[in-house]
Design brief:
Elements lengths: L1 H27 L2 H46 L4 H26 L5 H17 L1 H16 L7 E4 L2 E8 L3 E5 L5 E5 H6 L2 E3 L5 E10 L5 H13 L16 E7 L4 E10 L3 H18 L17
Antiparallel strand pairs: 1-2, 1-5, 2-3, 3-4, 6-8, 7-8
Helix pairs in contact: 2-3, 7-8
Length: 303
């Protein structure tokens, strides 16, 4: 407080001295010289304003040309509309800010403070929108690398469903019970994505347990007939990577386990799965092949 009281009068005196000096200079300067100086400054400032206006219109024209050029490039390369719009907006905003700084500098105003202000404001906005920026970045990664697209059935972040929409910040899933799930792209791009629709073919694995004493050849024959009767099950000739596979895979406590592996089209996966289980359940008992039941042996001792 003492320093402030001591320095304030000195600062005030400096200002008053400068004002007095300017007044004395004006008084001692001839009127024609003052008018000439004022006219020179007005003409100089007017030329700067005209230059700034010219730069403004030329800059706006160039920014529009650049946006149209980017639009044609994105259309030619068939870039996703969301990422194309986002990139165009970012470039347009950056070029507009650069144009404003150039115009302000042309008017003779120091742009150092303006640049520092913009940098500080950008940092503050970035910190405030940290999660949103992360989602933007995740959206760009998804739209560029395309781990999935609209219409794919995926499992991610503990949810699964059909992708209904991919935006720059989030992805919307429609579940099998018709719920809409919105997942932020930031978390989605950094997590594991299970895309069931990416490949055209899927392998269906089934395990069938039958009771001990069953002939393995007879059981495999019946299971093979069930598989061959379904036209949706693919063979090597129809494009499957491998032929249908049936083998005894495990000797469990109360049953022997057969493993079935067949290839189907991705869109047929669940229908074949459910139909195959139903056919196995109906056909095996008809051919004297029984399913086991859990058994518990109890031995009683008389003391």
């Amino acid at each position: 407080m003492i320093n402030l009281l001591q320095t304030t009068p000195v600062d005030t005196l400096d200002v008053e001295a400068k004002v007095t000096e300017v007044i004395e200079t004006v008084k001692n300067t001839p009127a024609d010289v003052l008018i000439g100086d004022m006219l020179d400054k007005i003409v100089s400032f007017g030329l700067k304003v005209l230059a700034a206006l010219a730069l403004y219109f030329i800059g706006i024209w160039l920014i529009r040309k650049i946006k149209k050029m980017l639009h044609r490039i994105f259309e030619k390369k068939k870039t996703d509309p969301a990422i194309a719009s986002f990139v165009q907006s970012i470039i347009s905003i950056a070029l507009t800010i650069l144009l404003i700084i150039i115009i302000v500098g042309t008017l003779g105003i120091d742009t150092t403070s303006l640049a520092a202000l913009l940098a500080g404001g950008g940092m503050a906005i970035g910190m405030a929108l940290n999660g949103t920026v992360q989602n933007f970045a995740g959206g760009i990664m998804i739209l560029i690398f395309r781990p999935f697209k609209a219409g794919d059935y995926i499992q991610a972040q503990g949810y699964e469903g059909t992708v209904s929409e991919v935006t720059i910040t989030s992805t919307k899933l429609t579940t099998v019970d018709n719920r809409m799930i919105v997942i932020p792209n930031g978390a989605l791009s950094n997590g594991t994505i299970n895309n069931y629709s990416h490949n055209t073919l899927r392998r269906l694995d089934l395990s069938v347990g039958v009771e001990y004493g069953t002939s393995t050849e007879h059981a495999k024959s019946i299971l093979s007939e069930i598989i061959n009767a379904d036209p949706r099950v693919l063979t090597v000739e129809t494009g499957a990577p491998a032929a249908p596979f049936i083998a005894l895979s495990n000797l469990a406590d109360s049953s022997i386990i057969f493993t079935i592996r067949v290839w189907v089209k991705s869109q047929d996966y669940w229908n074949v799965n459910f139909d195959m289980l139903e056919k196995i359940y109906n056909e095996l008992p008809k051919n004297n092949i029984q399913f086991p039941y859990p058994k518990l042996d109890i031995n009683l001792k008389n003391d």
